[in-house]
Amino acid sequence: MAGRAKYWASESSSSSGSETESEEIVVKKTIQKKKKVVQAIYTDDESEDEGRVVRNLKDRRFDELSEHIKKARNMRKINDFSALLNTFKDYHTTLSKTAKVIEKEGLPRFYIKELVELDDYINAKWDDKDFKKKLSKQGSKGLTTLRQRLRKYFAEEPKTAEELTKYRENPDASEEEEEVDAASSASDESDDSMSGTSDESDDDLSDSGSELSGSSDESESDSDSDFDSDIGDDPDNEFARYTIEYFLKKDKTSSKADKKVRKEKKKREQKEHKEEEDDDWTAVDPGTVGKGDLKILLTGEVQIFPKDVEINAKNVVQKLAEITAMRTPKEADRQNKILFYKKLREMAIEAKTGLGLEIKIRLSTISACYDYNPKHKDYMSDESFANALSETLELVQILNKNHETLILSDNVQDDEESLTDQPNEDGKWHCRGSLVHTCTKLDTEYSKLLQNSDQHSEEYRMRLSNNCKIMQIFNEGTDWALLQADKQQICQMYLLKIKYIYYRHDSQKGAEGSQELIEKFCKYIYTNDETQRIRTQAILYNIYNLALHDKWFQARDLMLMSHLQESIHNADIGTQIIYNRTMVQLGLCAFRMGQMEDAHQALTDIQSGNRSRELLAQGFSMARERTQEQEKTERRRMQPYHTHINTELLECVYLVSAMFLEIPYMAEKEFDSRRRMISKQFHYQLRNSEKQAFVGPPDNMREHVLAAAKALKVGDWKKCIKYLINPKMNQKVWNLFAETDKVKDMLQKYAKTQSLRVYLFSYSQFYDNISIDWITENFDMSSSEVQSAVSKMMINEELKASWDEPSRSLVLHKTEPTRLQNLALQLASRLNQLTESNERLCESKQGSNFTAFYQSNRMRDWSRNNNRRF
Amino acid sequence: MVASPIEQVQIDPVVALQIAKCFNDERAQDEDRIGQLTGYIDRSSNVLEVTHSIPSPVETEDNFDEPERYALDYLKYIREKGCDHLQVGWYTSSLNSEIFTRSFLNNLVSFQMNLTESTVIVYDPLKTAQGHCSFRAFRISQDYIDMIKYDAENDYWPEPTLKELRDGKISTKDIFEEIPVALKTSFLANMLIYELEDRDSFNPRKSFLEPATSASLEKHLKLLDKVVDEVVNDSNRFNQFQKVTGKNQQQRQTWMAKRRQENEQRRANGQDELPLDEVNSVHKLPEAPSRIEPMLRSVQMKEYTDAVADFATKSLGKLFITDAFQKSS
């Protein structure tokens, strides 16, 4: 019989109908205040505790307490007073948490014993003058404070003091007492729920006036915070009377306070009912459904209604509200709540109270599953998630089965809800709620669950396996939405589904045909969506998927057509993250297709500034300082691990593409003073590597790319390829592509062409003409490839040369400026800079007048020189 | 005793060959090898005659005190042999006229402080290889020597500040002085040269008119470009310094005015006045950029431009000759 939870029943009495509207407003306010008041009161039997696996609140608290006591005993042995003081404070906190239990049952025996021992100990030490002298300063201070605290405690809690004296008189008697107590409470309880209610409500009524005046509100809420100091045994405290006697009807003159609490509860229930049922449901017979009959029996059975109550829609609605109103600070309570819901549902189905009600209960159950305290835990437990999952699935299935007669919508008004055993006038069940929201919630909770598990653990894999179940729910949900023909809902469902498949390559197991699906969904969304957000995200997912499957031109065109690049910074952060991911995927795709410029351009935003992990929501960058709050929100945005894009791959692709662009450019513009950098990051890396006195053989990816860049710089394509494609790089980077060999082929071809370009830029000045055969031989390219590459250079006016077909050779034209002239030009521009900066210097020194003077002087000098020269 | 400065450096061909050998040595290519010069000073005509040189051994980690002992031993030997053993300076090499560096200046100062007549002979192996035998002698000007505060014990002197340079009226061209160098061969050697000329007559067809300076010119232009860039940076730095100083000056003035006002008030109240020199700790003067470095760079820049001009005139001369040849033929 242990661990029965006893709740206040919702007593929506008919008599309270007399209360006016204004009173209700007052009540509402007090309800908010009273939220802290614990509503559940446990009546427990110690004797049967062992049989239960789930330990109830009281036991846990008491264990905690005895733990503290054990500690305190050790402290006493070593005379550690400051620690002892802390433990003493711990008693208070523990007891304040257990206040309700204590009120009912009195202080636990072992605690009294401890207090007695503590008191004796302190007194003994206090009297021991020698001991005190020996104590350190801190120790004696601790002793003094502790003694004062204890005195104060006894003074404030005369009841406890009384108990202490009782204990001192008769240290053994208490055990029996406790047992007697328990037995009586157990036996009284059963009739309590049935018989006592009516006269109680009478009491309530008589007092209602004075309560609502609000005079006692303050003292009430105060008592909450006061628990620390006076542990409920204080006779001055109204709340203190709120003990077991009251419930056992031994004390008929219940105080204002406890009634007030109950009264409020009653009103709240009433209010909720009013909201839900409107006028039809104001008059509920208080006699039929009593309070405190939500119990979980030892056998695991859930008891909701008293045995002989007839189960009808009215009662079920009422009970549902009652369960919903349960406050559940503990995990265990939440589980119980779900059990209650389930039982209620079963009973409702059995009693045929109607489909509308069933759906309503289901929705409540699902939201109960998601109920967790975000302060303590960022995510729900696996258990509740599994619960939520199966509940949602069932819900969707029911919806689909009854799609003709059931309407689930947010637009259903309170008074339209079908909460009777009969459908509404139009022959359909109306229910308020939204399947899309339920599914979205499922999705967010799921990603939270994934965010909060270690990516390499079995746990993550386990959680990930929920994917197919979720997909099943979404599939069914989509079916339902399609049947309802609600475009917006269909769009939302489609987007949810896309979210689960867009990152998967067709070649992966279980992802076959995802391309067509996404294509279909996105097209539907493009034509039917009315919100900008869904459309934007759909476009991004679509591009991502296209890029993933190497459909470069389609993906690029879609990106350009959407004009997202111009407007994306106005989007919400979630969408921006998707955008970043999409751009990156696009860049990778361009790379695979051999479009180096595009690859470089797509990746450059993400790669510059060393923030790629952050921008892709795959981790944090260490550099930035952030508050805990910021970190938390950032953590919430993290992408689940299985959708991550490998950042090393990204960096490698970026560097390689930058290399292929930059090195030929550098060779071409060797003497151009206006030369700009294509990739800052690549330059930085290259400079760093060139600064090193000794360059060892490359080890990591970056060093490999840089070594390749250096080889490319002198047109050595063999070395370049050797550094780019080798087992190490294969393992680190290239094997991550779906079609590795293709990528490698592309790389080889690219490296050859680019080294030819570099070679011609750097060394063509030493040639008068070059034979094509020599080039084809040295660069391992076909003559047509050579012709195309070199011709392109000629057309772009990068290389001054022409073909001589008969001799199959490339004739190079010596043109001005020559190297020397180039240098002279460079020097001239540099000297210009010098004069400018010198003039600035003079200006700052002499003021602007000087400059004018100086310039006219210079002009004179110049003309004089000229005269002399000619 | 203030002796009149040296007006000419006269190098014995032996020394010239010794120096040339030292730097044509393969392992000497990439190191700044220096050696010491001995000789005597002809006070009557103020000529420094260099008659012998001692190449410093390559410094390694094991024998880092060896060069000195080596030099001393060497001096002892040549003295026993009856040669001149008076140290008159040192020699070094430069490629592409890259001479005037910080360490060059420092070495020269420290030599000249020990021996006023010390000079340095700079040998350019590259130019010599191209046919222009290049030995140049430098010393630090007396003005500069007078200006710096040399600490003889530690062989150290603080870098001259901007103010000192301005007060000493030292400009870029006043740091180094070049002394004319003469190569004086003995009569016997002269005879040998005439003899050789007769035997293998001078062949003008062989690369006589080729302006073979292109590589060197390129190199010089590149170096010139680099040094100009550095000077631009210096100039910008100095500009920045001016700005900061101006701002600082303004801040100081406002601070002083405020402090004076405060002091007046305090005086009126009969309180002690606050010190005015606190300003230095409140508004610290910005640190002036080094002046000597830009000056050295300017000297170096001048050196490059001279070299380029030299190349250019020679090449132009050759071009004119070629032109004349073509017209006549």
UniProtKB/TrEMBL annotation, chain A:
Transmembrane segments: none annotated. Residues 641-817 form the PCI domain. Residues 1-25, 160-236, 258-285 are annotated as: Disordered. Keywords: Cytoplasm, Initiation factor, Protein biosynthesis. PROSITE patterns: PCI (PS50250). It is found in: Cytoplasm. Residues 160-171 have a biased composition (Basic and acidic residues). Residues 172-181, 217-236 have a biased composition (Acidic residues). Residues 10-19, 182-198, 207-216 have a biased composition (Low complexity). The keyword Protein biosynthesis applies. Pfam families: eIF-3c_N, EIF3CL_C, PCI. Belongs to the eIF-3 subunit C family. Component of the eukaryotic translation initiation factor 3 (eIF-3) complex, which is involved in protein synthesis of a specialized repertoire of mRNAs and, together with other initiation factors, stimulates binding of mRNA and methionyl-tRNAi to the 40S ribosome. The eIF-3 complex specifically targets and initiates translation of a subset of mRNAs involved in cell proliferation. Component of the eukaryotic translation initiation factor 3 (eIF-3) complex. This is Eukaryotic translation initiation factor 3 subunit C. It comes from Oikopleura dioica (Tunicate). The lineage of its organism: Eukaryota, Metazoa, Chordata, Tunicata, Appendicularia.
From TrEMBL, chain B:
The keyword Cytoplasm applies. One of its GO terms (molecular function) is translation initiation factor activity. Pfam families: eIF3h_C, JAB. Residues 9-144 form the MPN domain. Keywords: Cytoplasm, Initiation factor, Protein biosynthesis. The keyword Protein biosynthesis applies. One of its GO terms (cellular component) is eukaryotic translation initiation factor 3 complex. This is MPN domain-containing protein. It comes from Oikopleura dioica.
